[in-house]
Specification:
The structure is a single chain. The protein is mainly alpha-helical and 434 residues long. It has a domain of 178 residues. Strand 2 and strand 3 form a beta hairpin.
């Protein structure tokens, strides 16, 4: 079933809007002006610890990585709202060609594109939260406006990929992350229709994909709908990973898709993790194995029992040696303690592996940590669910900070019990007399 046949109302809207003269206000701006803005009380903030606290660690309201990502997302959003799509396409192309990334390895092209489509996606999210029907203008007008923009320059791969990703984002909003049997049929139809439309858009640009991580990332995102053999999925991800091996996100996605919970098997997961590590030895050491296994291990007893623990831990050390930024340090420490360490399944062998992984947080924190990033810890506690809906950023961050401080106190429990104070400096944690 195609996008246009499922949402038949959009056909007439697209025809009408194409015939109209150029809009005085871009569709993105029309949508964003109607969106509720977060109140000041809901924005993440930093609460300095009392000097009487036994554990003192800087907790900036925005990390260097957050600021960098925000700059590029805001640029993409600004250009889209100003209807400067030619400038956006040029910025996407340059960022993609030069493999521009944030300090923690997020591609700048992905951030620009996300910012450009964020108003449309946020409008859909609000409409679905209000239980709008599939033919509601609030669900169709934004994506329809993007389709109009694509029709103006159908041969621009950068605009096409952004519109395709808007369809993919919208599809996931319809589906959610629950088991397929728990999702209403109408939602699954909308999910499939948006993915079908995204595939139609991207298939025109197969030749341009050869040297473009950005276009390949959009193509790999289509695999979320299933329907392909695991070998086909792993080949596509291998191409994407090799185009920009310093970006860990495709490795994590590959591991997720190769797990039995998605489209693979434990044998396939292990094979692809080892193949990735071997190809990326110069860039990551053993870290390729760890990146691929990272999300696949969460909540899976058998995956934990089967994993090569020594190789995984070696990969953790290699990743932090090559990327010691505080975003990555908080990511790895919270993954070890919060995503993996808190779980306690029925499999004793899996639990033993989890305890070994959780224990790595001790040396990660002591050797590498200088500041706390609460949002990372909050996401780690929820398995790094990319589709998680957060009602209040402040409360979400506060929960992450509470978890992190509790777990950091556990790491330094002996020193604290002896009456010492732990102060995190630019050189790491320092033990002082209270």
């Amino acid at each position: 079933m195609s996008f246009l046949s499922l949402f038949s109302g959009i056909r007439s809207r697209l025809a009408d809007s194409t015939a109209r003269s150029r809009r005085s206000e871009p569709a993105h701006e029309q949508l964003s002006s109607a969106l509720p803005q977060p109140a000041a009380a809901d924005r993440p903030d930093s609460q300095p610890a009392s000097t009487d606290e036994p554990l003192q660690i800087p907790c900036p309201p925005l990390s260097e990585e957050d600021r960098c990502r925000g700059i590029h997302q805001d640029q993409g959003q600004f250009l889209a709202r100003q209807d400067r799509w030619a400038d956006l396409a040029q910025a996407l192309e340059l960022a993609d060609q030069d493999r521009l990334m944030t300090p923690a390895g997020m591609p700048v092209a992905d951030l620009l594109s996300f910012g450009a489509r964020s108003d449309v996606i946020m409008a859909v999210e609000h409409a679905l939260a209000d239980a709008r029907t599939a033919d509601s203008p609030a669900l169709l007008d934004g994506i329809g406006a993007l389709e109009e923009l694509l029709a103006e320059t159908p041969d621009c791969p950068w605009r096409a990929a952004t519109v395709a990703m808007a369809h993919i984002d919208t599809g996931w909003l319809w589906r959610g992350t629950g088991w397929q049997t728990q999702v209403p049929d109408s939602n699954l139809e909308a999910f499939a229709a948006h993915f079908d439309r995204a595939r139609d858009i991207l298939e025109r640009f197969q030749t341009q994909r050869a040297a473009s991580p950005f276009l390949n990332a959009a193509w790999c995102a289509l695999h979320g709908a299933g329907g392909h053999h695991p070998d086909r999925i792993s080949r596509d991800f291998e191409t994407l990973i090799d185009l920009n091996p310093l970006n860990p996100a495709p490795m994590r996605a590959l591991g997720n898709y190769m797990s039995p919970r998605w489209f693979g098997s434990y044998e396939k997961l292990e094979l692809e993790a080892r193949r990735t590590a071997a190809r990326l030895l110069p860039e990551w050491g053993a870290g390729g194995y760890t990146w691929v296994m990272m999300d696949a291990l969460a909540g899976d007893d058998e995956a934990c029992a089967r994993v090569d623990t020594e190789f995984l831990i070696e990969g953790l050390a290699d990743i932090l040696e090559r990327r010691p930024d505080q975003h990555t340090v908080n990511l790895m420490a919270s993954w070890c303690m919060n995503t993996i360490g808190w779980q306690d399944g029925a499999d004793s062998e899996a639990n033993a592996v989890r305890r070994r992984i959780a224990a790595c947080s001790d040396w990660i924190v002591r050797r590498h940590m200088t500041e706390l990033h609460p949002l990372i810890w909050a996401h780690a506690a929820r398995g790094f669910d990319n589709n998680l809906r957060v009602g209040s950023a402040r409360r979400f961050a506060a929960a992450g900070q509470e978890d992190a401080v509790r777990l950091l106190r556990h790491i330094f429990r002996r020193e604290i019990d002896e009456g010492m104070k732990i102060v995190f400096t630019d050189d790491g944690p320092v033990t002082k007399q209270a």
